[in-house]
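Let us begin with a simple case.
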Amino acid sequence: MLQIISGHAPCDTRQSFLDCIEARKVDPKLVGQLWNCTDTLPGEYCHRLAIPPGSTYAQAARLLRQYWIRW
């Protein structure tokens, strides 16, 4: 998978991240790949993570980094 410096992430990378959220697992590699991704996280995942609608994958990745030890 390609590391995203800024901007859009590949669809398969974003989907893998969503799958991790559903499984309540954190993949540090995916968190790093989406650290600067400006794509909008789907609303249902914003709700699951208790972040504002319209948040980006980068915002979600930064939040999950804080909790990966607990998950």
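The second case is a distinct protein. As before, the sequence precedes its structure tokens.
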Amino acid sequence: MKKLIVIDVVGLTKNNLEKLSLPNISKILKDGFCSSVIPSFPAVTCSVQATLTSGYNPSEHGIIANGFYDRNSKTVSFWEQPESLVEKPRLWDTLKKINPNLKTAVLFWQNSLYINSDIVITPKPIHHENNFEMWCYSKPVNFYEEVVEELGEFDLKWYWGPLASLKSSQWIINAAQYTIKKHSPDLLMVYLPHLDYSAQKHGPESDEFRQSILELDKILGDFVEFLNSSGINEYEIVLLSEYGFNSVNSSLSPNLILRNEGLLSTRTIGGKDYLDYEYSKAFAMVDHQIAHVYIKTGYEEKVKTIFEKHEKISQVMDKNLQQKNNINHPKSGELILCSQNNCWFNYYWWDDVTRAPPFAFNVDIHRKPGFDPLELFFDPSTKTISLDASLIKGSHGVFQKDDVNSLPIFAMSNSKESLPDTVEMTQLSPKLLKFFTDLA
């Protein structure tokens, strides 16, 4: 019986495949097909992965960004991992209903904590008062510890922060090899993050980004060589990506705009300014090139007018536009901002850096009310995370549907079937399911 490996090479586009010599990826796809994919909106990691694995849009699965604002507890949460946050069944859930004997494995995908999969590895560091202990949640119990004996410990610093590097993808693909040798799953889903770091730091048109793609091509070549040398020939391979990157040369602070307009409130604690969710009439939860703006009743039109006039904002989505873009969910902001292609949103609400809260200067993905790509940069002069927004050269979240070659891909090896040249992200999960139902 044929089996399937799905490898998420985040940031890979048809442009990359056509402009670079990628011998290993070319060999994988030689007898298959490659389609461009229109991502669900917004084109950010957690949202797109939930769509990709469920076949539903954010309006239905509820992952409206990489974070969300809880209006009851008045808290913003980013990068929360429980599978219960995704409000629709996903690929592995549906497969288990079709055939409970199918064995699934999911390595490093978002919202994979406690999922209904036989094999799982996902980062879950243990946080202590002043530091954390590296650990990954896994199934079967202690599977991560078993992999560590073979590969050494996964280092979270490779996965995010100033030291993020190819080492994270290398460890994950090595863990995938071990998973195949030990468990031979029918479906293996693998997430490789390396291009994400390179595109944000250097830009998608940079030599550094092109070099990163070549590095990923080699990793994939080594992986295929492992399958061949081990006599493992029952696997088909799917290569896909979540979004393409836009080159950026500017940033915008929606929260500082709201504060200057008297709409965002802060509290001074220990000489630092903290965002006050209770008394703010409006604030923005930013995520790359989109921002959910949460607004108290009666201030919607004022906030909309402020942002519609701004040259760095391409679109302000009210509830009607949110419905048209399948992002109309109770967790969504009253408005959603989209930046211009060459701009990204930062979460800052201060114009005096001495008033910035301490977490601004650290890798602190859970306490910031927005995604902070500057956590990739270390400022040697202050020995902290940089706050220089001009350092960011690539971002994502908004995309041009008509620029087909800059969209992400869905490609399959040795496939007698194909998809149209351009497909919606919601079509991918049914396509993967069909692979198994056709075999039933």
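The two ends are 9 Å apart (CA to CA). The mean pLDDT is 96.
Keep these points in mind for the review questions at the end of the chapter.
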